[in-house]
Fold each of these.
Amino acid sequence: MGRGGEGGPPGRRDRIEVRDLRVVGVHGVLAEERERAQPFSVDLDVFIDTAAAGASDALADTVDYADLVERVARVVESQSFALLEALATAACDSVLRADTRVAACALTVRKLRPPLARDVGSVGVRVLRRRDPDAPATAG
């Protein structure tokens, strides 16, 4: 393949997309954010080569997005971070551990009710994490 587009890794244009996953979690710097759960929205892009799945039409030849959704939701629900950057990184790391075919993970996490004096729809961060080619392959 040619060069990657939209911030993806070079040579990896294929991706699985999940949009607007809604999950409740406890994340934030302020005491009020640490006392009760609040809603978050997550967008996920998983960069993989989908040629085998496109040819075979078999789930075994791709990464199951249902599993990816559950992994990301578990991180948001069961862990607690002060910063959205740390939350997004932990969720991406979980996706990268899911399957060695995942070349990279881009994840946007938005706080839907940020404690701000101004009226904003959300605040968020987007991180891109690539698989370390020197890291040992792990599953799960």
Amino acid sequence: MDTEARVASLEARLDALAQRLEASENEARTLRRVVAMSSTRWLHWIRLERAAQAQEEQGGWPASSAEWNERRTAYWTDVALQSGLVALGSLRVNDESLFNPNVTVGDDFHTNGLFVHGAGEVRIGAHFHSGPHCHILTESHHYEGEALPYDAERILTTVTIGDNVWLGTGVMILPGVTIGDGAIIQAGSVVVRDIAPLAIAGGSPAVPFAARDAAHYERLAGPGDRG
């Protein structure tokens, strides 16, 4: 093999080695991202690639899962505000959520993942908390028109949620529902009708099966700091 051929062969091998090294570095970088998060969150990173890119632009990947959680919260809270959501006080959106400009939330709003579907109005009181993957539907289709299964008309409704309401993981609230102050909705429930204040409801459809102690609730919900 002449010198020119040997040089060409060596260059090809170097190029292949460089490509393998680059791939290995990408794999290591991804692994570092996964390890930086808690073990229960690593799959979630795939859905949050947009957030990851934004965080890197702010100066590198977080050094710990706690730092990642705070930066993720800052990102999704900012996304919520950019959607036009009206916040009447403090706001903490810990994970991917979806709002529209017709959503108004009270002070101390806290969600781990809430999706508002449709252009209808949503009014949420103070000290709200939800688990992840909760959904609020605000519009439905007109099935009594001149087309099947429904026509092009959209029926917009208002969903109202009172103060101190807690939604468990995976709750779905249908259009037009009102949930009273202090109510608790069990994880995985589908709320199809109004829920009274202080009720603890669950199931599909959700029905009350217990209630908060009224005196205990009133003592905590009165004037002063809340825990």
Amino acid sequence: MVNLNFLASFILFICGVFSALLLDFGFKIKVGPGIKGFVAASVIGWFGAWLSATIEGWGPKLERLPVVPALFGALSLILVVSLLFPPKKN
């Protein structure tokens, strides 16, 4: 899983962006304020999706990547980061 092709990396990026959208706009769980927080959540989500996709998973696969564990990994890592480092209240 270290040498991903572009399409596999893009699928992980889509999982991270979808997770950031769901948590940011759906559940109002933010990593930071504004667009910077959303971009940070997307990057954190990509990393979480990559970590969980390295473990052999279940469910449908795209480009040899298990999609369901990638989504769960992205959601969980964004949630953990937002709980450990909450954004400052203005």
